[in-house]
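Recap slide: Adenylosuccinate lyase, sequence and predicted structure.
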Amino acid sequence: MLTERLRDESGGSPECERLLTTDDLDALAGVLAEPGRPLWAREAAAFRLGAAGDRRAFEALVLLLNHRDPQRCASAAHALARLGDPRTARAAAALATNELRVAYALHPVRLLVELRAPEAVPALITTLQRRLRPHDPYRRVALACVEGLGALGDKRAGPVLNEALAHPALAEAAVHALARLPGPR
């Protein structure tokens, strides 16, 4: 759970409790602008602002969405999904398709599916096509793309999902995803 993790990271700091409980959005935004703040404080402030729909959290949340720590990525994706910022889908698509950061693409892929934005299907198709190479180590990302394309139900995903059938780790999910697409596949 986010609050417990941040409390642990802060060493039980009273500042952490204040950030987790305050209703002062300006104070939370101030944490994002102040230099020298620890990562746990920035994450707490960004998450709280994002969940409240305050767009001042956008940049910080996108940075956290691309963090090496999966827990930070998950909390950022959760807050970004609630933020309502029109830039979110474009940012998530850019992160999901960035081959230099593919190890951290799982949460951007899942966020794209949740947002159901126009950028989602093209980004997931691109990401999945790249994961279909032999010996690709990012099967969790590929599986999230397959499942996401099925959930989105866009017929443009048919060709890449058919390609995924040839990959044992993805075949079952690809069958289910293809079944969710409209029309002939």
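The mean pLDDT is 96.
Residues 51 and 79 are 5 Å apart (CA to CA).
(End of recap.)
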